Amino acid sequence: MLRLQYFPLFFLFTCCLPQPDSSPVTPQVLDIYFIDVEGGQATLIVTPDGESMLVDSGYPGFEGRDTQRIMEALDLAGLEKLDYMLITHYHGDHVGAVPELVKRVSIETFIDHGPNQEDQPNPKKIYEDYVEIRNKVNHIEAKPGDRLPLKGTEIVVLTAAGNALASPLEGAGDGNPLCVSTDLKDDDPTENARSLGFLLKFGDFSFINLGDLTWNKELELACPRNLVGEVDVYLSTHHGLPSSGPAALVHALRPRVAIMNNGSEKGGSPEAWKVMTTVPGFEDLWQLHYSLAGGDEYNSSESYLANLEVAPEDVLPSDHKGHWIHLSAKKDGSFTITNSRNNFSKTYGVQTEKSQTETAL
């Protein structure tokens, strides 16, 4: 006689249902590469989905030096094209290498602040060359308050074409007592004052880049109210020159960390260094170069300096290679910064957490 075995009902259900995946989930990461273009700007932003935005192109000439360094960063990030290229303003150290760059990589969309208003021959020629290239692809003319379409991030335009936000961002707007003791400087008629500046948010992580915006225009974001709020990472405005970076703005932003995109003989002023390093709660200043103007007193320690060479560009050794700084951020607000010269790496914890883990890989 055939006997039927009894199986509990819960076994019949559980044996045949798909089981949950127990493999660990890799956190999404935003990557920012601060590329050494010897005192200009080239900042590459890559989202977890692989969308990319390059901010500025560095200098023209120098046998394609800055373009080559950008291409090395793109290769490091696994990119075969650029989704967006944002031009902060039309000076040669920020837009000059675009004609060389488009010969090496496809750029789908350009973002800028609109027409050039500087009436000097060099900026006018640089702008004309840029526009000829820009007009062949998609173009966004950004205005303060606009949101830029880099997937996986929230990017709001803070300044553009000499204009600034009209009202504070969500959570910002506090009065700024530092404004009382801050004087204006002479108005800046150059493209610097028209820089396209933005705030990027990735979850709880935030990063601000104001291009070469100068003193009076920066104060429009900070006085009488702080329109931006606080940030995690601040890219030193205008390479750390004293014509930018008033304490009324930088201290109101309260960055935990600053990155200085200086050259050995450009930027990196003691005035800017002191403003950044005296921010309440400030942790570290990373520099693309040792600053000759700063000397031993006003430079960060060697671990935080990507490039130590102090000779003029025309006498540097032929094998000189610009080292980059890499920032990797998670949505919980934590981030790690690595110096490619020495592989020194430092991780900054979540929110107000002050403990960091340091490694020399």
Folded structure, characterized:
It is a single chain. The protein is an alpha/beta fold and 361 residues long. The chain has a single domain, classed as Ribonuclease Z/Hydroxyacylglutathione hydrolase-like (Metallo-beta-lactamase, Chain A, 4-Layer Sandwich), CATH 3.60.15. It is 18% helix and 24% strand. The protein has 8 helices and 18 strands. Strands 6-5-4-3-2-1-15-16-17-18 form a 10-stranded mixed β-sheet, with helices on one face. The longest helix is centred in the middle third of the chain and has 14 residues. It is globular, with a radius of gyration of 23 Å. The N and C termini lie far apart (72 Å).
Quick overview of this protein structure:
The chain is α/β, with parallel strands linked by helices and 361 residues long.
